[in-house]
C-alpha cells in the first residue's frame, strides 16, 4: 500500500511539472500511467476495506461471548442470574448461560468483584 501511495505522489509531481512543450503523445502516456496508478490504488483500497471488514467480524465473533463446549459453533449467552447458593452472601452469582445454536445450558459461577 505504501508503494502505491509513493507512486501516486510521484505521478502528481510529474503532472505539476508538465510544460507546454510536451507532445500530445507524451501527455497521453502520462495520463495513461496515472490512470493505471489510480486503478491500482483503488484495488488496494478495496482489498484493505475487505480485510478490515473481515477482521471486524472476527473481533465481534471472538468478543461476543464464550463458545459452546458442546457444539463449538454457538455463543453462550446469559439468560439468567441468581445468587450463588453458598457464596451468594459475599456477592457471588450463578449465571445461567445458553448456547444460541444448540440450546445447551450451563451454570457458571461469577464473582462481580473480579477476585
From TrEMBL:
Coiled-coil region list: 8-65
This protein's UniProt keywords: Coiled coil
Name of the molecule in the record: Uncharacterized protein
Amino acid at each position: 500500500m505504501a508503494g502505491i501511495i509513493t507512486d501516486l505522489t510521484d505521478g502528481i509531481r510529474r503532472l505539476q511539472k508538465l510544460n507546454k512543450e510536451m507532445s500530445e503523445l507524451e501527455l497521453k502516456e502520462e495520463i495513461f500511467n496515472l490512470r493505471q496508478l489510480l486503478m491500482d490504488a483503488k484495488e488496494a483500497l478495496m482489498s484493505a476495506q475487505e480485510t478490515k471488514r473481515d477482521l471486524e467480524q472476527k473481533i465481534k465473533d471472538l468478543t461476543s461471548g464464550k463458545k459452546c463446549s458442546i457444539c463449538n459453533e454457538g455463543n453462550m449467552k446469559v439468560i439468567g442470574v441468581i445468587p450463588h447458593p453458598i457464596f451468594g452472601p459475599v456477592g457471588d452469582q450463578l449465571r445461567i448461560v445458553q448456547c444460541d445454536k444448540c440450546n445447551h445450558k450451563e451454570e457458571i459461577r461469577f464473582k462481580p468483584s473480579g477476585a
